[in-house]
Design goal:
By secondary structure, the protein is an alpha/beta fold. It is built from 14 helices and twelve strands. α3 links the parallel β3 and β4. Bound molecules: nicotinamide-adenine-dinucleotide.
Length: 415
């Protein structure tokens, strides 16, 4: 199968939305492409004394509603089109959550797993030296993403502060707590997703204390989703997976114990009392809620007809193809689309910026309460729009988000 270009998908999704909104073709043309992108070559001195030149990007998709916001990925398969797609989705995500921010994204083609701590630190600092001229608290605020960590954010913030000649905590989020990070950032993506699941369950009449759950991917998003589904709702997690395999236990898995098992053995496989199933079987289980929390394009037109979950809560970015979306919608599967479901991360990142500017830090409970309000409001805006236009939840999320960006562009006199 040909590799799907995520940016082509992002553009197709926008085109669908433009049709629903009868968007002016000129405005649509502006929104189909990033407003600015910087491609950089990053020389790094490696531990063996040699110099290696890495390729990096920073894409600022649209900043009509405020400074751009979006993570930095370090990945060997990073491409400019992935960064563009993610920057577009960040634009719609920030708008949907009504954050005063635009959308951006960054990336470096590298494999940090094969680099020493020192090499990683030099790469982080060199990346900021290169993109520093276009980022900053009032311009563009990066954060962690795949294979980038709070420690890396600390190095990047420090480098930017050195360039600026003053502390610039608000220039990067996802920092360690001891260096201006926010309480509640660790599990924010999963927690935010669960607030939307709670609202969806009310809408569909699902009793969450009796609900069954399957989770694809047991990393930051998937692990916390499984744990919080148990502690917040009393739901039963029956199946989980990671890149090495999937496990099922009809009687329910102890999510935290599976996490400990994975920490020890580096996989969820062979968890005592559970049986192995295939990834395809996990996705097609007869459960109340399915959390894709790993990769893009896992629900396609091929397997969508066999998805039996009542709710698909997309913690991963881009897990469902546009063709599969149509099939799920026709079959009555309630999809909570990615840039709504996984928006808890950027929302708490925004809270981190606010706390950095205030130099006053909130308790975790304050963060949860504010996050709940943001996620619940956004979920209902999408649900109401989906009913009003008789469109699926993803199209509805686009309609809400794009309308707000267009309004900001109009008010600024850009269009
Ligand atoms: P992570 O690296 O912590 O975890 C990813 C998990 O997916 C790992 O357990 C890995 O083993 C598993 N995985 C990889 N390939 C798999 C496969 N073929 N089948 C099953 N599992 C597989 O990453 P994360 O931060 O949890 O991110 C997961 C997804 O959520 C990504 O799409 C990411 O963009 C999205 N997301 C994450 C956040 C966040 O704050 N962490 C925010 C928004 C969106």
């Amino acid at each position: 199968m040909a590799k799907v270009n995520p940016f082509a998908i992002a553009q197709r999704q926008l085109d669908q939305c433009a049709k629903i909104l009868h968007l002016d073709p000129g405005v649509q043309a502006i929104l189909r492409v990033p407003s600015r992108e910087l491609h950089v070559s990053i020389p790094v001195r490696m531990d063996d004394g040699s110099i290696k030149v890495f390729q990096g990007f920073r894409v600022q998709y649209n900043d009509a509603k405020g400074p751009c916001k979006g993570g930095i990925r370090f990945h060997p398969d990073e491409t400019i089109d992935t960064v563009r797609a993610l920057a577009a989705w960040m634009t719609w995500k920030c708008s949907l959550l009504d954050l005063p921010l635009g959308g951006g994204k960054g990336g470096v083609i590298c494999n940090p797993k094969e680099m020493s701590q020192g090499e990683q630190e030099r790469l982080c600092r060199a990346y900021i030296d290169q993109v520093g001229r276009i980022i900053g608290p009032e311009k563009d605020v990066p954060a962690p993403d795949v294979y980038t960590t709070p420690q890396m954010m600390a190095w990047m913030m420090d480098e930017y502060s050195k360039i600026s000649g003053k502390n610039q905590f608000g220039t990067i989020t996802g920092k360690p707590l001891a260096l201006g990070g926010s309480a509640g950032r660790g599990d924010a993506t999963a927690r935010g997703g669960l607030f939307t699941v709670r609202e969806a369950a009310k809408e569909l009449g699902i009793n969450l204390s009796k609900a069954t759950i399957a989770v694809q991917g047991y990393g930051n998003a998937g692990y916390y989703a499984a744990c919080l589904a148990q502690t917040m709702f009393g739901a039963k997690v029956v199946a989980v997976s990671d890149s090495k395999g999937c496990v099922l236990c009809d009687g329910g898995l102890d999510a935290e114990a599976v996490g400990k098992h994975k920490a020890k053995t580096s996989t969820v496989c062979n968890f005592p009392g559970a049986k192995a199933i295939s990834d395809a079987e996990l996705l097609e289980l007869d459960v109340d809620i399915l959390f894709p929390a790993a990769l893009e394009n896992v629900i396609t037109e091929e397997n969508a007809p066999r998805i039996r979950a009542k709710i698909v809560a997309e913690l991963a970015n881009g897990p469902t193809t546009p063709e599969a979306d149509e099939i799920l919608h026709k079959n009555g599967v309630h999809v909570i689309p990615d840039f709504l479901c996984n928006a808890g991360g950027v929302t708490v990142s925004y809270f981190e910026m606010v706390q950095n500017f205030y130099m006053y830090y909130w308790e975790a409970e304050d963060v949860y309460k504010r996050l709940d309000k943001k996620m619940t409001t956004a979920y209902h805006a999408v649900l109401n729009t989906s009913k009003k236009f008789n469109i699926n939840m993803r199209q509805a999320a686009y309609v809400v988000a794009v309308e707000r960006v267009v309004e900001a562009m109009k008010l600024r006199g850009w269009v």
